[in-house]
Amino acid sequence: MSTVGLATPSAAVPVPVRSSMGASSVSVASPSRAAGGPDASARSVPVTSYTPGSATAAYTASTAGGDQRFLHVTQMPGSLETAQATYEALLNVQTRGGQMQVWEQAPDDALAEIMSRNASGTTQQGRLAGVGSALLEQVASMGAGYRQTIMNIGAAYSPGQIQRKAADALWAFQSRPSASAELSIETASGAKVRLSITDQKEYSPTGSGMSVSIEVDGELTAQERDALKALAAGFDAAVQGLAGDEPRLDLEKLLQFDSKALGRVELKFERYGFDNEGKRVLELGADLRLDASRREVEIKTREGVVAMNTDLRQPAQWGSAAQKDRAVAQYLGRIDQAAERGRANPGLVELFKSTFSAMHASYPSEGRDSSRLGISPGALPLRSDAQAFSAEDQSLMTGLADFHASIAATTRATNPRRTQERDQFQYTLNQSTDIAGTSRGTRAVTQTQTSKLSAAYHQSLLSSAAPKFDSTAASQNYYYNTVEDSSTTEMRLAYDDDEPTRATLTHQASQSLHSLKVENNQVVGSQTTPGQQSSYKDLLPLIKELKRQQRDQEASERDRQDTLDALHTLVLQVSGA
Fold first, then answer.
1. Cβ neighbours of residue 549 under 8 Å, at least 6 residues apart?
2. CB-based contacts of 559: which residues, under 8 Å, 6+ apart?
3. In angstroms, what CA-CA distances link 220 with 188, 259, 262, 302?
4. Do 492 and 502 form a contact (C-beta atoms < 8 A)?
5. pLDDT in the model for residue 277
6. Across the strands, what pairs with 534?
7. pLDDT in tens, 437-485
8. What is the pLDDT of residues 407-431, one digit of tens each?
9. Which are the contacts of 451, defined by CB distance < 8 A and separation ≥ 6?
């Protein structure tokens, strides 16, 4: 396969050529590195001069705008070491599978090397691997715009044909990509950086390929460049997780961005496929927004939507790593229970769980400026005051930042004879914390956790599996179950003159399962199974005793920590009951 490049010239220079006729000279372009690059329109570009075999073979491709374009041919596919150009080579182009590679600019840098390596990949993960990190390293190094495209097109044997096919392919896969990723960053100084990747792995009549670009608005400081480079692995990990056959949100590295250098980070990702009828559909779309005070994500798939936000404005309530791990594990268990009760799609549930874990995997460094985080002036001091909350206080809270999380499956009418019976699954989780008091001695906390499940599904009369419906009455033997559950847990803590005056835990839950029984397309019965739960725990005596033991040094630090851990586990279990 020969590798051919499309470049917008900054100057035409003579380059020696080699052909069966010997060396000659052509006018080729010294490629521009401007961010704009060639226009992606699919218009045909006429060739006004092309004379192979002459001492000087050159052509000029004039567009309506008056700019010029040139073809750049490298003798070895994907080679970054050869820059010999020859138009005579077009007479004997070596193709692979009837295709050739066309580049928007000469492939003479590390990013182009990665794109060349990935362009023959068959999986979306493989094609995108390393591209995002290379883009971040590029902008961190240069601090300027960039653009590159590699296209696999059907073999053509004249500059005009190649130019036309390349323009068609570029327009086609940028308008209908198999996947795209966009990372937008606003730095602390106000500069804006936008990185984009557009990929088409499916070979279409116009071809396939990949295009990347960097846009920079403003000047990047040295610290900001370093912060961008530090995001490289995180960008790749997030894209790779979303591009997989079993998508998951991997944010551990991306969440560690330097909030002193970068004010906001946004990631958008889309992946397309085809349905059973061959129509192009969105398989997954993710929209992630991060800054120092908030995290938000929404992920759409064919099976449903996962949405979540995390409030980072009150670091005082964050617990230790062990507390957060216990809380996350408890919530993941609650999600599994809700999914089983409502017969949720397993893949969508796993995506919800991985998203929940990712959003709480790590929080920013503690002890930040409260005015930047939007803490109200009268609120309790942040974690920079090590005594903001006592260990006893922390044991009564989950240890997580406040959040709202939801999962909503795509509603489907699976029974053709009773389309009003729709399968659905909606589940929400929420935690909110109200911190009051102008001093440690008068602190008061109310932390509320809520959950709500609304689901409906069809179940076979003979097993827990879903029935196989068709248009016949013989297929109409099933239960149609509807679930409505809700739960609220409230923890209240109060102090007066630094002495605990209140420590209560209240839990209320309701459950309802309604089953409609259908035999041979006739409703033969229905049943509703309600359930109510409530509990109240006064933990004030235990808190006072813990404080007394600490004051009188009656318990070892190990025994004290074991008691606090047991209290924290109790709070989580009551919340998940």
1. 555, 560
2. none
3. 10, 15, 11, 39
4. yes
5. 84
6. 508
7. 888 889 999 999 999 999 999 999 988 889 999 989 999 999 999 999 9
8. 999 999 999 999 999 999 999 999 9
9. 334, 338, 427, 428, 429, 430, 485, 486, 487
